[in-house]
Prior knowledge:
- The complex is a heterodimer.
- Chain A is an alpha/beta fold.
- Chain A is built from 5 helices and 5 strands, in the order E-H-E-H-E-H-E-H-E-H.
- By secondary structure, chain B is α+β, with helices and mostly antiparallel strands.
- Chain B has 5 domains: about 130 residues, 2-Layer Sandwich (Beta-Lactamase); about 100 residues, PAS domain (Beta-Lactamase, 2-Layer Sandwich), CATH 3.30.450; about 110 residues, Beta-Lactamase (2-Layer Sandwich), CATH 3.30.450; about 80 residues; about 150 residues, 2-Layer Sandwich (Heat Shock Protein 90).
- Helix content of chain B is about 45%, strand content about 25%.
Amino acid sequence: MNAKKKILIVDDEQDVLAYFEAVFQDSGYDTVLARDGFEGFELAKSEKPDLITLDITMPEQSGIKTYYQFKKHSALKEIPVIIITAADESYKNFLNELNGLSTPEVFFSKPIDPEELLKVVADILFDNNI
Amino acid sequence: MGKKTDKASSNSDLEKYINKRLFDTIPLGIAVIDPDYNLVYANKAFEQLFGSWGNRKCYHVYKSREDMCSYCESAMTLKDGLPRANEEAGYDKNGRHIHYLQHTAPIIDDDGNFPYVIHIFTNITEATQIRDEHEVLFDQVPCNILLIDRNFRIVKANKRLTDWLGDPEGAYCFESLKGLKHKCTECTARQTFADGRIHTGYHVWKSSEGKTLHLHVITIPLKRADGSFDLVMEMAVDVTQTLKLQDGLKFAHRFLETVISTSMDGIFAVNEKGKVTIFNPAARKFFNIKDNQVISREELAGILPKGFLNQVSEGPGHVYLPETEVKTIDGETFPVRLVGNKLQRSDDSPLGMAFSVQDLREIKQLEKEKLEAERLAAVGHTVAGLSHGVKNLITALEGGMYMLNSGLSKGNIERIQKGLEMLMRNIERISIFVKTFLSFSKGREIQAKICDPAAIAKEVVELYEVKADELGIVLTNEKIGDVPPAPIDYESMHECLTNLVGNAIDACQVSNGDSCYVAVRTFEKNGIITYEVSDNGCGMDYEVKKKVFTTFFTTKGLGGSGLGLLMTKKIVQEHGGKIELESKPGQGTTFRIKFPRSRLPKVIEKEA
Lengths: 130, 608
C-alpha cells in the first residue's frame, strides 16, 4: 500500500461527486472527478486511474456509451469499473447482455452504503493485485 | 231441228267468240313476229303489257334494245320449228323492269313452212319479286334453316348455315350437324314427321373443326294442300352467346349473394319504389333485426341518421360518412361508418339505393383501450422515473449527511459548511420535484371547449417574447391557412406549447451558433390540426431522443424536473393526438404535435 490508489469518479451530480470524493479521500485514496462521460474518458486516458466509478444516467453522453469506450480502449479496458446508478436492475441485465464486452465488475444501486462501497473497492484493488 | 239449229247457231257463236273475242280477252299477251322480227300481230293483253307495237321489232318492244338479242329463242324456232319456253326479263310500256315467261311456237302453213312465230307472255314480275324476297329472308334471317326429308337428309340449307357448315345438301342431318353415325335419340324432326306437328328442342351442334353451337330448334312440317308432307323445316337459333351470358350472370349473381351474405359489413338496399330488397345478416345483427323480419322504408329511415336516405337519393350519387351514429331497431345508438350509393340505369333513371355500414363499436373500444394502455404506460414510466429521481435525491442527501457528520467528527468547518449546503440544496430540489410531480399526477380531467387553436400558440409566443429578445433569439409565430375552432382544453394545450417553446429556447441557449431562432407554426391539413415548434439549437443525439418522453429525464441539471415533455405527451394523448420529434445534434430540433379532429375530446357542457 505504498503508492496511493487513484479512483476516477464519473457522475453528473455535483453533490454526488463531492460525497464520493469525501468518502474515498477519507479512506486514503486519490480521486479524480469527471462531470460527464467525455470528461471521464479524457481523464481516464491522462490520469490512468486504478478504478473507475461510473454513473449511467448522464446528459451529453450516457454511462453506457462511456463504459463501451473504456472497454474498447486498449489502454483502459483492464481498469475495473464500478457502476453506481439510480437506474433499476434492468440496466444491469442490459449490461450483462452486451456482446463482446466483459460485464462490469460491480453494479451498485443508489443510494449506496459507503462502507460496502469501500469494501468492494478494497477487494478489487488489493486482493486482485496480490 | 230447232234445237239442232239452236245448237248449231250457238256453236257458231262460240266459234265466232273464240275466233274474234278470245284473242283479246285472254289474260295472256300474245304477239306474232315475222322472220325479220317485226311484230305483225298482237292482242289487247300484249298492248296492256308492252304498249304500242306497230312497225316495231320484238327486241325493241320487249327489251328496249336497238339490235337483236345475242341469245334468241325465236331465231332458233324459225330455224327448227320447235316450240320453246323461257323466263325472260324486259321492260313494260312504262319502262318498268318486268319478269315474264315467254312461250315461243312456230305458226306452220299448209306447206309445212313456218313463216311466223307466235309469242305468248305470262307476267311473273310479282311472283319473281316474292320469290326473291323469300330467298333473301331464307338466307339472311338470323337463324339457321334447313329442310330435311323423311330419310333425314338435308335437302336445302340457308346461307347462314352453309357459311358455318359448308354445303350439307344431301348429307344426313345427324352426320353433318353433330358428327354422329346414327340418328339422334331425341330428334325433333322425327317427332314432327311422326305427328305432323311443330316441335321444339335444345340441340348441340359440332362442326368438323370442333366448334360447338348451342341451339334452340323448332321443326315445322311443310304441308301440301292435302295435309301430306315429306319435308320438315328446321329452324335453329344460336343461343351459345345467350347461354354464356346466362352462365356469367348466374355466377355473378351467386358471387354477389355470397359476398353480401358473408360480409362482415352490413349491406342493404332499397329498390326504386323504396322497398327494402336486401338486408344482409351482418346488417341484421348490427341493427338487431330478426332474420325473417321485413323492414319498411320508414323503419330504415328511422335507424339511419336523420335525412340520410334523402341525402343519398337526391345527392350526386355517393354519400360517405366516416363516423356517424345509427340506431338499432330498438332505438339504441351506436357508432358506424356509413356509405350510401344511388343506383341508376345507364339512362340515369333511378334503380334504388345501396348501403354499406361498418360497426365501429369494437374499433372505438379498442381505441379507448389503446389510449388507456398508453396512459397506463405513461404512469408506469412516471413511477419508474420517480424512483430514479428519488434515489438520486437520497444519495445527494446522504452525501450531505456524510459531509456533515465527518466534518463534525474531524472538526472540519469547511466540510460541515459544504454538507449543510448539500442538504439544503437537495431539500429545495425535493420540494420542486414534489410540486411538479403533484401537478402531473393529479390527472386533472381535461375540459375541452371550442377555441381557436392558433390563438393558444400566439399567447404562448407572446409570453416568451421578452425572454427571447433578451437572449437574442428570433422567436416567430405563424398561422398557415385556415384553422377553424376546435374542442381543446385551453390551459393544458397552453402548458403543452409552453413546454415545447421553453425547451426550444433552452436548446438555443446552449447551442454554439450565433443566430438562433425558434419558429412556431399552426396549420391544418386533411382534418389534422398541427402545432410545430422548431429551433436551430443544440439538437439531440439518439440516446437523448429515446429518453425524452419516458423518464424523469433531464439534461438541464438542477433547472429541469424531467417532467416537461412527459407532461406534454400526456396532454397530447388526452387530446387524441400524437407527438413527433425530429432532431439532429448541433442542428436543431422540431417537435410536431398533431390532432386529428375526429379524435379530439368532446366538448364539456357548460355548467348552469
